[in-house]
Design brief:
The complex is a heterodimer of chains A (416) and B (229).
Chain A lengths: L2 H11 L12 H20 L10 H7 L4 H14 L7 H9 L5 E6 L5 H7 L6 H8 L1 E5 L7 H14 L5 E5 L2 E2 L7 E2 L4 E2 H10 L3 E5 H6 L12 E2 L10 E4 L6 H14 L12 H4 L10 H6 L9 H4 L18 H4 L23 H4 L10 E2 L9 E2 H26 L12
Parallel strand pairs in A: 1-2, 1-3, 3-7, 7-9
Antiparallel strand pairs in A: 4-8, 5-6, 10-11
Helix pairs in contact in A: 4-5
Chain B lengths: L1 E5 L3 H25 L16 H29 L13 H15 L14 H27 L11 H10 L1 H6 L1 H34 L6 H4 L1 E5 L2
Antiparallel strand pairs in B: 1-2
Chain lengths: 416, 229
């Protein structure tokens, strides 16, 4: 990390407040409703990016999703976007006109885990359907094209939808060693790839912790000099959806918001949408009562673990992590890390692999003093060292004073 | 013949003992918060025993007491009617000479004592200032961790409180590199303060023994004794 990155981080961190206003008054919502209606009418007037293959209703039928499943999803998404219930018809319509928005999805240094999270759910979900229904022009993991054909598709999409498409980036970008990632028949490095595509995009959405903050590839010693999208792309709206993997609900939430308003949602200081990352896991955790009570799991499989005690002493980083997993959960609300009885590893926070994923409390994790990275000592060991050094110094001085110290005698002259 | 010298006012002594009490309490509860070192062996439902919650509450009360005394001390540094410590911090020739002489007095095991020990000396003024800087560091990193629980931007006393905390403490995220760094800095500063306390107590006892001016009595009665010439 160089000083410019820090400066960048400082600017991001230094915001006066993260106040989330969930009730902005009738006048505001009436105005917003009209604005969204206009936007949807515009989109409906446009042709779908690809000439109507299937209508949304047909998709629902093919995927064996009932109208009821869809309406449940609409209600949940409306609530997640912090919109009042009267916006539900608009959210439903937004889903239906989604095929008007072209999307390009690229993978840099990653494991395709965010794509997998979207695709490999236990049954077809509405979120997954949205990905299918969205006009995805280029997606390295799921597209049929390969080689020259794939490159042609990409270039055609960039030309046809210049300034209109949403660019989804998955994976970190190796700026320190650009040759570490190349792709295509006419090889391009990840840095060139992202810069080129971001230049022509309407907005860039960094999906997953790698694309947002560098994630696992950026962990110490970060051999490829991996960074997130926001460190490479300048002058474009960027939305970070970190977490490992990013929650599909948050991805569709951002897309729906863009379709409804043509704008990116309200972001926090790390460019994460507030509707999703405006919560601390710890504050909405189902085990919070056990934390306050001082009831902790001491080791795996003990009495506490069997009784869902707090996982803080097993290294849960919920107190440091901002995300909505504790509310939305994963796989259509099936479960989430703390729910299955293991701690949070802070996967949606910057540097998480180095500082949070230690599986023990921060007090017991190795710290890295600026002078010597990788020093294996905890804060307490280091602090006890400081205290011991002080005690040794005091001891030497005390013994020396006792043996050779000079006490002021009555006859001693003092110079004043 | 000894002369009685007033060294601490009642207010200064109250501040001193409030600080002592608060630091001890904050260390005991803070270590529990960092790594709960005892189990709450109380046969009660989780909803009724607030072991961690009470530890945090006591920690916050100790912190608030320290914050209040810090503000009072910062004021007294400049505007005290008794003795303005800031005057001893200005790096002029006189203060630098006094600082060096006090250090030499300590290092030569009281064989050399070329300064006036009847008032606050430059060495102690600097040493006390280090503590207050450390306490301010604790204040800012602590309040930064506190405001994470108010991430929604509101509190029971209004939105101004988290707003103020963000404005006042968000720089710690930049300096220490995110939430983890702030947490580690807060914990590490505790150890530095403990080392500070160890030397402080030793030095005051040492002065009492070797100077024979009753320095240790200052913090209890406010007076020490200086040989009249």
């Amino acid at each position: 990390m160089n000083i410019t990155d820090r400066e960048h981080l400082r600017a991001l961190f230094t915001k006066p407040t993260n106040y989330i206003n969930t009730n902005r008054g009738d006048a505001y919502y009436r105005e917003l409703y009209k604005k969204m209606e206009r936007r949807l009418a515009e989109l409906r007037a446009q042709k779908p990016v690809r000439e109507a293959e299937m209508k949304f209703e047909e998709y629902l039928k093919v995927w064996e999703l009932t109208r009821r499943d869809f309406l449940k999803w609409v209600s949940a998404t409306t609530a997640m976007l912090m919109l009042p219930p009267q916006f539900e018809p608009l959210v439903a319509q937004a889903a239906e006109v989604m095929n008007r928005i072209p999307i390009i999805w690229i993978n840099i240094q990653d494991c395709a885990g965010n794509t997998e999270a979207l695709l490999r759910s236990y049954s077809p979900t509405v979120d997954e359907l949205i990905l299918e229904y969205l006009s995805v022009e280029y997606h390295e993991v799921i597209m049929a094209a390969a080689g020259d054909q794939a490159e042609q598709n990409l270039e055609k999409a960039v030309k046809d939808f210049d300034g209109k498409y949403l660019l989804f980036v998955e994976g970190s970008i190796p700026v320190g060693m650009p040759e570490a990632f190349t792709i295509g028949r006419h090889p391009k490095t990840g840095v060139e790839h992202v810069k080129h595509l971001a230049e022509h995009a309407a907005a860039v959405i960094a999906v997953g912790s790698c694309a947002a903050f560098g994630g696992v590839p950026a962990a110490h010693p970060n051999p490829t000099g991996a960074v997130g999208v926001m460190d490479v792309v300048k002058g474009k709206p960027i939305i970070n959806i970190p977490a490992c993997p990013a929650n599909p609900a948050n991805i569709t939430g951002v897309v729906i918001h863009y379709i409804l308003t043509g704008e990116i949602p309200e972001l926090d200081s790390l460019l994460r949408p507030k509707f999703a990352f405006g919560y601390r896991i710890h504050d909405n955790c189902e085990r919070r009562a056990h934390f306050d009570a001082g009831e902790f799991v001491e080791e795996w499989g003990d009495f506490g673990a069997k009784n869902n005690f707090c996982l803080y002493k097993m290294g849960c980083k919920g107190p440091f992590t901002f995300n909505n997993c504790s509310i939305v959960r994963y796989n259509e609300g099936t479960n989430w890390p703390i729910g299955v009885g293991r701690g949070c590893i802070g996967c949606s926070e910057p540097n998480f692999w180095d500082v949070y994923a230690t599986e023990r409390p921060i007090a017991d994790s190795p710290i890295q003093p600026p002078a010597g990275r990788g020093v294996e000592s905890t804060v307490d060991q280091f602090g006890l060292g400081v205290l011991t050094a002080t005690a040794v110094g005091i001891g030497i001085h005390a013994v020396a004073s006792a043996l050779a110290g000079k006490k002021d005698k009555e006859e001693n002259k003092e110079e004043v | 013949m000894y002369k009685k010298v007033k060294r601490m006012t009642v207010a200064m002594r109250i501040i001193h003992w409030v600080n002592v009490f608060s630091i001890v309490v904050a260390v005991i509860t803070g270590l529990y918060i960092a790594h709960p070192y005892y189990q709450s062996m109380i046969a009660e439902a989780a909803a009724f025993k607030y072991v961690m919650a009470y530890n945090r509450w006591v920690h916050f009360i100790a912190a608030i007491l320290l914050d209040v005394t810090s503000i009072a001390v910062a004021y007294l540094y400049f505007f005290s009617r008794f003795e303005k410590p800031v005057k001893k911090l200005i790096p002029n020739a006189q203060n630098i000479k006094e600082f060096v002489e006090v250090v030499l007095n300590l290092l030569t095991l009281n064989r050399r004592k070329n300064f006036d020990s009847s008032h606050l000396d430059s060495f102690n003024a600097v040493y006390f200032t280090i503590l207050h800087i450390l306490l301010f560091l604790m204040l800012f990193t602590g309040l930064q961790m506190y405001v994470w629980g108010l991430y929604h931007g509101t509190s029971s006393i209004g939105a101004w409180w988290p707003w103020l905390l963000h404005v006042a403490t968000d720089w710690t995220l930049w300096v220490f590199g995110g939430a983890h760094g702030v947490r580690v800095a807060h914990h590490l500063t505790m150890w530095i303060i403990l080392a500070w306390v160890a030397f402080h107590i030793y030095y005051q006892v040492w002065r009492t023994i070797f100077w024979r001016e009753g320095d240790i009595a200052i913090v209890f009665g406010g007076y020490k004794f200086k040989k009249a010439r």
